[in-house]
Design goal:
With about 350 residues, the chain is α+β, with helices and mostly antiparallel strands. It is built from 13 helices and 6 strands. Strands 1, 2, 3 and 6 form a 4-stranded mixed beta sheet that branches. The protein has a two-stranded antiparallel ribbon with strand order 4-5. The N and C termini lie far apart (about 70 Å).
Length: about 350
């Protein structure tokens, strides 16, 4: 039995490469143009992208794992510590699904793990990525309150309040990615041995659904947090500049944090917006390969977080050295993260 469900050419595609549905013996396949298939099998897709994910996995897994262990077992439980622990956990969860994507791309865009794991991997990937963005936003607000309004915020900047905030963020991330769990994400490719996961979707199915979903995701989990972070960090930089050279090191770190956020997360979200604003892009999905590369680059933020927020701290490095390289010297001093969640070069650089 052969059934071909062809959508009109004018029908736009959801956030993916467009495919036409073909049903053979009750199995639904997707048909894509040869040019698009060659793009999916290009060196960029089957070599560059999985190599980028492999690098993120090899660097991010040990660095975030060690950071989470030190924060959980050796750090004083301050507001900043709670946010940083959750950030490390979100980065680790994102990194944990990368091996599936690595195998998928190295196998030539072939998903051998089943529909259920495709949905879970896709949801975990986007959910923890945007969860990290929301946690970084909370860290920036916490820093802003500690530096700009230290006395006003002292009463409610508590570890308990930070824990409640993190719980709300995790629930929000789960709600934002729930639609990815509820929708079919993997389809076999017609006349090929490939099963695609999330990268090719039916042209005439759930166009409006995905349009509103990803626009909402970008607005709520990237654009709004970015505005808040820009305001917070610019306010922090202004406050530091008013205090002169004493805080030169902290100003450099604040600028570095802001730079990494914009550099890693902006390209993929901008390409996604361009995809939806261009009728030709929605029709043919010609920006999607570039989007896939930018999405891989955005995961490098999970590698940068430990070094920007943890390992630049002299206290943090000292605690790691004592734990792994100096067992004979015992210490009862607890590791303190900066009260404004900004890692410091030394204690003299504390802002509050």
């Amino acid at each position: 039995m052969f059934t071909r469900q062809m959508a009109p050419e004018i029908t736009p595609c959801p956030r993916a490469i467009p495919g036409e549905k073909i049903t053979i013996n009750n199995i639904t396949y997707l048909l894509i143009h040869n040019a698009t298939r060659s793009q999916l099998n290009s060196v960029v897709t089957v070599r560059l992208i999985p190599c980028l994910y492999t690098l993120v996995f090899l660097v991010g897994l040990p660095s975030n794992g060690l950071a989470l262990w030190v924060l959980a077992t050796r750090a004083e439980k301050l507001t900043s510590t709670v946010f940083l622990m959750n950030l490390a956990a979100a980065d680790l969860l994102l990194i944990s699904v990368l091996p599936f994507k690595i195998f998928y791309y190295f196998l030539g865009n072939n998903w051998p793990f089943g529909e259920g794991l495709c949905r879970v991997t896709t949801a975990f990937f986007y959910g923890n990525m945007y969860c990290s963005v929301l946690l970084l936003t909370c860290i920036s607000v916490d820093r802003y309150l500690a530096v700009v309004h230290p006395f006003f915020s002292r009463s409610f900047r508590t570890p308990a309040f930070a824990a409640c905030t993190c719980t709300a963020i995790w629930l929000c991330a789960a709600v934002l990615t729930l639609p990815l769990i509820l929708q079919q994400q993997s389809y076999p490719l017609y006349r090929a041995n490939n099963t695609l996961c999330h990268d090719v979707l039916p042209r005439n199915e759930d166009d409006g659904y995905y349009f509103y979903y990803f626009i909402c995701l970008i607005a709520c989990a990237f654009l709004a947090p970015l505005v808040v972070m820009l305001f917070s960090y610019c306010s922090v930089l202004r406050a530091l500049l008013d205090n002169g050279k004493r805080y030169a090191y902290s100003m450099k770190l604040t600028a570095l944090v802001l730079f990494t956020l914009v550099a890693f997360y902006t390209p993929s979200n901008v390409l996604l917006l361009v995809h939806y604003s261009s009728y030709h892009s929605k029709l043919h999905g010609n920006l999607y390969i570039s989007y896939m590369v930018s999405l891989a680059i955005s995961t490098f933020n999970s590698c940068a977080d430990p070094f920007v927020y943890y390992y630049v701290s002299e206290d943090f490095r000292d605690k790691v050295r004592r734990r792994f390289f100096n067992h004979s010297k015992k210490t009862t001093t607890s590791l303190k993260t900066s009260k404004e969640t900004l890692p410091q070069k030394s204690s003299k650089d504390l802002l509050v």
